[in-house]
Amino acid sequence: MARLTINGEVREVDVDPETPLLWVIREQVGLTGTKFGCGIAQCGACTVHIDGVATRSCAMPVSAVTAEQKITTIEGLSPDGSHPLQKAWAALDVPQCGYCQSGMIMAAAGLLQQNPSPTDEDINTEITNICRCGTYNRVRAAIKLAADGGATQNG
Amino acid sequence: MTTAHAPSRPGQSQPAESPPALSRRGFLVSSAAMGGLSLGFHLPFLASAEAATPGATPAAAAPEVNAWVVVRPDETVVIRVARSEMGQGTLTGLAQLVAEELECDWAKVTTEYPTPGQNLARDRVWGSFSTGGSRGIRDSHDYVRKGGAVAREMLVAAAAAEWKVPASECAVSKGVITHGPSGRSTTYGKVATAAAGMQPPAEVRLKDPKDWTIVGKPLPRLDTADKLNGKQVYGTDLKLPGMLNAAVRACPTFGGKLVNFDAAAVAGMRGVHKVVRVDDTAVAVVAETWWQAKTALDALPVTWDDGPNKALSSASIAETLAAGLDAEEAFVGASAGDARKALAGAAKTVSAVYGFPYQNHATMEPMNATALWTELRCEVWVPTQNGEASLAAAAEAAGLPVQSCEVYKLHLGGGFGRRGNFQDYVRQAVNIAKQVPGRPVKLIWSREEDMLHGAYHPVTQCKLTGGLDAEGKLTALHMRISGQSILAAVRPEGMQNGKDPAVFQGLNISGPEGHIGYAVENLLIDHAMRNPPIPPGFWRGVNLNQNAIYLECFMDELAHAAGMDPLAFRRRMMANHPKHLAVLDQVAQGIGWDRPAPAGVHRGIAQIMGFGSYVAAAAEVSVTDGKLKIHRIVASTDPGHAVNPAQIERQVEGSFVYGLSACLYGECTVKDGRMEQTNFDSYEVLRMAEMPAVETILIPSGGFWGGVGEPTIAVAAPAVLNALFAATGKRIRTLPLKNHDLA
Question: What separation, in Å, do the N-terminal and C-terminal C-alpha atoms of chain B show?
Answer without folding.
Answer: 70
